[in-house]
Give the backbone structure.
Amino acid sequence: MHCLARWAFFGITLVLTGCANMQSALDEARGAENLAEWRVIPAQRAWIHVPQSLMPMEREHGREREQRLALRNETVLPGDNQIYLRTVAGTPPGVMRMDRIIEQAGGVPAPFTTDDLATMRSIEDDAGALIWAEWTSGAGTSCVFALRRLTPRHRVIPHGAGAMDVVMRNCVRGNAEQALAPLDAAAATLGASARSGPDGGLRPLSPLAAPLP
């Protein structure tokens, strides 16, 4: 009985130690992420093609990289229109955790709240699943908060990554469909006409190139 008790205690200790080590690793990763600096990159190195995007930025930490693309905001609503992209290490990369990627992108942006996450819509298109919430002012302004996970099945992924998660907040003078346009299948599947370059960016494919896997 005493032996069983000792083994039970030892097992609990191992679990607690494992949890502590995992939390320590997470804290260390977040610390490295916070220390990584954003740098402006040429528009052609952006992982997604959005003609109206402004000043793409990128940073790298560990095995993951991030990009932010500012979008024009012609509304009177406060807050930034932007697309956030983050590579996901691993093959396969696992299931997208919405709460995690939203946190990494900076949280739920105004005018949305966490309550809107429970009523998000979704469709399947040539770029996979697109999930989004809508908001309208009732006076011609529409906002969307949208998420995608892009994989090699849908497009070229930055070198060394298993997938790429994308988060967008976009408010426009128009309808929700117009607000979603920067993240529609045509924009998201740029890999159909581009290939990953040696620096992890995208470069054009020759018309004579073989189809991508």
Residues 2-35 form the longest helix (34 residues). The chain has two domains: 1-35, 40-204. Helices lie at 2-35, 98-105, 176-180, 185-188. The first strand starts at residue 39 and ends at 40.
